[in-house]
Design brief:
Domain Vacuolar protein sorting-associated protein 54 N-terminal: 67-220
Helix content: over 70%
Radius of gyration: 53 Å
Oligomer: single chain
Main location: Golgi
Family: Belongs to the VPS54 family.
Structural class: mainly alpha
Strand content: under 5%
Shape: elongated
Biased composition (Low complexity): 401-430
Low-confidence stretches: 49-53, 355-383, 388-445, 447-456
Largest sheet: none
Pfam families: Vps54, Vps54_N
Distance between the termini: 80 Å
Order of helices and strands: HHHHHHHHHHHHHHHHHHHHHHHHHH
Length: 695
């Protein structure tokens, strides 16, 4: 039923509403009422006659329609007037408001225009000038910086030609300094400059080339110096060149250059002996060189007097030869001492300014002046002792003394270096040749160990004396190989005695009675540990030396060194355990009184951190960084154990409660203070282990 009603309504609407096609005229783009066709379509009055009409009915209808439309117009006008009269008050109010608004807008526009004019004047008078001055200042600063960069780039660009020029005059040190400075400038001032992207690698290659050139030049110099004629009276050949070479070698840490010199020296010595033999044999008329061809066969035919004369000739040449070597090594020694003193002064300045880091190579450089490495010291000592035993000197010896004093008058030595040299030379053998063999037997391994043990030379004097004894034992075995087994046994007894006596004096507290110490400090313990480590380092070197003098069937005796090494390592471990035990006892006493209550950080933790800092201060200059870290890891483990035990006793758990928060504050204070100690910045303390694990 409802659907039928809806359908009827729809049909009625269709009849009433015009067709969409009839309304489409209003949507046409050419719709204008001026067009008669359009007008007649919109107003279908085509049946009316405008030009007089053909019948009166159409005219009457037209007039009637006009009157009706006029009536409608009057009705509309009356309605508009009535609506205006009804809303006149609001209309006139709106009109007055609009006029007032227009007046205010005009005033506002005038005010804005005035303000903009004043702002423009202020901008022109007060802002533009200062801003331009600031812009000019910034521009000038940028231009100055750019000019400086360009000048720096121009200087860097001239590095390679300048290095080539310096190398052409053998100015190796100047070339190396220039390369180092240029590399530093490239890394700091000119980093990221595209045109210099390959210069760094090129400078590195040039530095490697200079390394090879310095070594080759020093080898050539050594060969020329050692093989020149003895008629040349100059003690040092081209002293300036030698000093430049040594400075360059030291700067590049080519500290094995003395090995090069020793090899050239041995070759020159062999050449001297051979020349003396050939000269002596050629002057003997009793020897028929046509029959006896070989030199060794000719030497067997020499008489005792001829042999003695030959030996005297060889020794005279060797005295001159060693005098030259002494003078050359004195120059080298003075250069080393000068560089070492410079390093020490720099190190002292760094310590005064709060730093204590050591430059690479300082320790190796320091060791070049240690334990009689320079045979000039040995020769000076030998001459001193010879002058004490025999007041009269030959002309040759007097000449050697004169050259020694002349060659030593170079760079002024520091008091510490001179004192160390005096102490060193007093322990050397008296024979010149023996001293040479001792000194030249020291190899590059001795340079490396000094990095750990001789910086601030931090060991007891006793262990330095022990090392001198090692050298004397090794030299004795060189001189008399037949007593190697006996010397090895005695050396093993000496090592055992040193270890046991050190244990008695320090761990056994025997030093309290022997030297009157009030207590054995942690610093004493660390120092003894360092001395023992130094001896342990030397044991394999000594063993290898003795092994070369033994027969294979005698190798079993070398097991003494294995046992001794184990004893020393056990002793070192006991000292480390003692250091941990000292702090362990402190933790047990202090933490047993720990209470979790404000204020924080607690007095207990303040005391613990204070004692940790004292322990670190006592040992950090003595032990290497790795050993210090391992020691404090063990100490931290002990601290966590005692703290965990006390927290368990107090019933404090990791529950986020007030007491847990107080403990966290104390632990954070402890962690911050420990990691603030030098070399312990990255130490993993793993403090969550203090809490009991939840089950």
């Amino acid at each position: 039923m409802y659907l039928l009603q809806r359908e009827k309504i729809h049909e009625r609407c269709k009849n009433i509403c015009p067709n969409k096609d009839d309304l489409s005229i209003f949507m046409r783009p050419d719709f204008v009422l001026n067009d008669p066709a359009t007008f007649n379509t919109v107003l279908p009055w085509s049946h009316f006659s405008v030009a007089g009409g053909k019948n009166s009915r159409d005219g009457a209808s037209s007039r009637l329609l006009q009157e009706k439309l006029s009536h409608y117009l009057d009705v509309v006008e009356v309605s508009i007037a009535r609506q205006i009269s009804l809303r006149s008050e609001a209309f006139f109010h709106a009109m007055s408001s609009q006029h007032e608004l227009q007046d205010r807008l005009r005033e506002t526009a005038v005010a804005v225009a005035t303000l903009r004019a004043r702002t423009a004047v202020m901008d022109r008078v007060m802002c533009r000038g200062p801003l331009q001055a600031l812009k000019d200042t910034v521009t000038r600063s940028n231009c100055t910086k750019l000019h400086g960069k360009l000048k720096l780039m121009a200087a860097v660009q001239q590095t390679q030609p300048t290095v080539q020029l310096l190398l052409s005059t053998s100015e190796f040190v100047g070339a190396l300094e220039l390369i180092a400075t240029t590399k530093e400038v490239l890394q700091q001032e000119l980093q990221g400059i595209h045109s210099f992207r390959h210069l760094g690698s090129q400078l590195c290659e040039m530095e490697k080339l200079i390394d090879k050139m310095i070594v080759a030049d020093f080898t050539t110099y050594s060969r020329s110096d050692l093989n020149r004629s003895f008629e040349d009276d100059s003690q040092v050949l081209e002293k300036d060149r030698l000093q430049s070479l040594v400075f360059g070698l030291l700067r590049q840490r080519k500290l094995d250059f003395l090995d090069i010199y020793s090899e050239e020296m041995m070759q020159a010595a062999k050449g001297i002996v051979r020349q003396c033999v050939l000269r002596s044999v050629s002057q003997i008329e009793d020897i028929d060189t046509d029959t006896v061809v070989k030199l060794q066969d000719q030497m067997r035919l020499m008489k005792f007097s001829q042999w003695f004369e030959l030996l005297q000739n060889v020794f005279e040449h060797f005295v001159l030869f060693l005098t030259r070597i002494k003078a050359t090594l004195s120059v080298i020694r003075n250069v080393v001492l000068e560089v070492l003193d410079s390093c020490q002064r720099s190190h002292e300045d760094e310590e005064d300014s709060g730093g204590s880091s050591l430059r690479p190579g300082e320790a190796e450089l320091a060791y070049l002046t240690h334990e009689g490495l320079f045979i000039s010291d040995a020769l000076n000592e030998a001459e001193r002792r010879s002058s004490t035993a025999a007041p009269s000197k030959t002309q040759t010896q007097t000449r050697a003394e004169t050259s020694g004093s002349d060659s030593a008058s170079g760079t002024t030595e520091s008091s510490s270096s001179r004192e160390q040299t005096t102490n060193t030379t007093s322990s050397l053998p008296t024979g010149g040749t023996t001293s040479i063999e001792i000194c030249l037997s020291i190899r590059a391994t001795s340079y490396i160990i000094s990095l750990h043990y001789f910086i601030l030379y931090i060991v007891f004097r006793t262990v330095l004396l022990l090392i001198r004894i090692f050298l004397e034992y090794c030299q004795c075995v060189n001189d008399i190989p037949s007593i190697t087994t006996d010397m090895l046994t005695r050396l093993a007894d000496l090592l055992k005695h040193f270890n046991s006596r050190s244990c008695q004096l320090v761990l056994g507290a025997g030093a309290l009675q022997v030297v009157g110490l009030k207590t054995i400090t942690t610093k004493n313990l660390a120092l003894v540990s360092r001395c023992l480590q130094l001896v342990v380092h030397y044991i394999p070197i000594i063993r290898a030396h003795f092994e070369t003098k033994l027969q294979p069937k005698q190798y079993s005796i070398l097991r003494h060194f294995d046992h001794i090494t184990k004893d020393y390592n056990d002793h070192i471990a006991e000292i480390s355990a003692k250091l941990v035990a000292i702090m362990d006892g402190l933790f047990e006493r202090v933490l047993s009184k720990y209470e979790v209550k404000a204020p924080m950080p607690s007095l207990c933790f303040r005391n613990v951190c204070k004692q940790m800092a004292k322990m670190h201060e006592a040992i950090h200059d003595l032990l290497p960084e790795e050993q210090t870290q391992m020691l404090f890891l063990r100490i931290n483990t002990s601290f966590k154990m005692h703290l965990k035990r006390q927290l368990s006793r107090l019933g404090v758990i990791n529950d986020g409660g007030p007491q847990h928060g107080l403990v966290v504050v104390d632990v954070a204070f402890y962690t911050e203070n420990v990691q603030a100690l030098r070399s312990l910045e990255r130490l993993d303390l793993n403090m969550p282990e203090i809490w009991e694990q939840k089950r």
